[in-house]
Each structure stands twice: as C-alpha cells, then as structure tokens.
Specification:
about 325 residues, alpha+beta, Four Helix Bundle (Hemerythrin (Met), subunit A), five-stranded antiparallel sheet, about 55% helix, BtrH_N, Butirosin biosynthesis protein H, N-terminal
Length: about 325
C-alpha cells in the first residue's frame, strides 16, 4: 500500500487520541482512498460505517453494517462457485465458510483474536477481539498493518492468519496484486499444509491426485452422518475447496504440457462442481429442518460423485503413463 506508513502517522496526529482499533483502521482505509470514514458505503464495499450513529452512541459496533452477500460475491470470483446467503442457517455459519477461503480483494479488514498476535500487548494472556488491515499477499505470507499498536508492516503466514482470524470485511473491488501462478501455488500449499502431504511431491500428479481424492471419503462423510446442517455445510465447503484446488492443479499441468486427457478431466471437474450445486440446492430446499429430508436421494447423488472421482483417477493414471 503506497505511502501507508506516512498516512498512518498523519491520521494518528489528526485523531489526537485512539478511539478503537476498528476506527483507526477505518481512518487508514479512508485516507488511502482519499475519502471521509463515513463515506465507506455498503453497496460499494460490502461494509458501511455510520459516522453520525457513532457520535450519538459512542459505540463502534452500533455504527457498523455489513453486506454478507457482497462477501459471497467475492467467493464466487475466487472459486467460480455460486453460493447464496439464503443457504446458510445464520451469519455465523457464513463466517465459518468465509474463514476457510482466501481473501482476494485488498485492502481487507480482518478481525483477530489478539491472543495469537505476537505484537499485541495482550498476546498469550487475554482472548480479545482486535482488528487489523491486510494490505497484500505474497505466496504463503500476508502483509499486516496494525495502526492501533504499530505503524510498520508485519508479516504473517497464511496458516497463522486462518488460525487467528474471526472474520473478513472487504473494502476494495480491485483484485489482489499477485500472479496467477503464485495464486495456484498458494492454493496447493494451503492444501499441503492442511493435509500434511509432502510439498516436494505435489508435481507428481498421480501421487497428489490420490492424496486429494482418496482422502475424500465422500460417501462415508455424508451417508453415515445424521445430516446435521452445520456438519453438512462444513463438509460441503471442504468438497468445493478440494475440487476447486484440483481443477487449478490440472489446469497448471495442462498449461505446461497440453493434453487431451487433462482437458477431459477439467471438463469433468466443471460438471462435478455443478453436481455439488445441485446437492446444495436439494439440501437448502429442506428449509433448515433439524433433520434433512431426502437423505436417500442426497446419498445417491454423492455416491455418483465418488464414482466420478474414481474415474478421474483412472484418467490421470492414463495421462501419467502416456
């Protein structure tokens, strides 16, 4: 973020005193965009701050409004996956889903548990909500600015970001400034860290494919569950993440060495994403009952997907042996 450190100094000098970490971040964003803090509108950024309400109540929480659909639009840009807000039982469920995804718009506000922040004076002592600004991403690290405690950029790993963060709020429609290859590498590394697959082997396509798809256990995860809503959406987010990641890996290999087999696999993966959408629609039609109906139909659809994944593994073996 250009001249960010100078801007923070100017903001703090004008402010005279600190009102809250969130308002400090808001002022930093506003200065960068050359607008007043109360002009951060909900329709444009997915977030709004009501300056008059803040002056009246003195409470930052009452001055904040969020547009969850805007955040979900960002997820659609990231994964090409259309998931409407109405599919979630509550805003908290949506936040769980968002926390499993990577932010693609910067600057972004992230709420942390300060217990995990090494530069925070409450670190390792008190669990406390704290807000910072994410200004960029470089492979497995993010740049963090905390105008409340420190005027300089901090570096944090993607894993630490996901572990400590509570939710994201996006302020800028501009896409993040990093290359497509780095983005794919970041997705791959994210999966490797989560499932402990040796990163040195990720280019071994057959090995990595088996690590992703055989660990999937689609039928077991769904047919043996009681079809609880929370469990279902947690599993669905993982399914979408794996499928989207796998598509990126296949696309990466195909960009290096064109192959009819890989193109066929990419087409199959697109169909699988549509199948997941059909399953989500079917689950959402239950209107969030305690127990989901149509369990037999859902189980059959998921069983069909498991067969499709096995078929993709066979195609990959064919490609590797070509």
């Amino acid at each position: 973020m250009k001249n960010l450190e100078i801007e923070i100094k100017q903001i703090n000098r004008i402010a005279g005193r600190r009102e809250s970490c969130l308002y400090d971040v808001l002022k930093t964003i506003a200065a960068y965009l050359n607008i007043r803090a109360d002009n951060i509108y909900i329709n444009e950024f997915g977030f709004s701050f009501n300056y008059e309400e803040y002056n009246k109540s003195g409470l930052i929480g009452k001055s904040i409004k969020q547009n969850p659909n805007r955040v979900l639009e960002n997820l659609k840009l990231l994964y090409g996956y259309d998931l409407q807000y109405s599919y979630f039982k509550s805003f908290e469920e949506e936040l769980v889903y968002i926390n499993n995804c990577l932010a693609i718009n910067f600057p972004a506000i992230v709420q942390f548990d300060s217990f995990y922040l090494p530069w925070d004076p409450f670190n390792n002592r008190v669990h406390n909500n704290h807000v910072v600004l994410i200004t960029g991403i470089d492979e497995n690290n993010v740049n963090v600015v905390d105008p409340y405690f420190n005027k300089k950029n901090k570096i944090m790993s993607i894993e630490s970001l996901k572990e400590a963060s509570t939710f994201y709020m996006y302020f800028n429609e501009k896409k993040a400034d990093f290359s497509e290859i780095n983005f794919k590498q970041l997705l791959i590394d994210n999966y490797v860290n989560k499932y402990k697959t040796p990163s040195s082997n990720y280019l071994d396509l057959e090995f990595f494919s088996r690590a992703i798809l055989t660990d999937f256990s689609v039928e077991k995860e769904f047919t043996e569950s009681v079809f609880d809503q929370n469990a279902i959406f947690k599993n669905l987010s993982d399914c979408v993440l794996r499928t989207g990641l796998f598509y990126e890996i296949i696309d990466y290999h195909n960009s290096i060495e064109k192959s009819k087999t890989l193109i066929l696999i990419k087409d199959e993966l697109k169909k699988i994403v549509k199948n997941w959408n059909d399953i989500i629609t079917l689950i959402a039609s239950n209107n969030f009952q305690t127990k989901i109906k149509n369990t037999k139909q859902i189980a059959e659809l998921i069983s069909d997907l498991a067969i499709k994944y096995e078929d993709i593994l066979l195609k990959i073996k064919t490609y590797v042996n070509e």
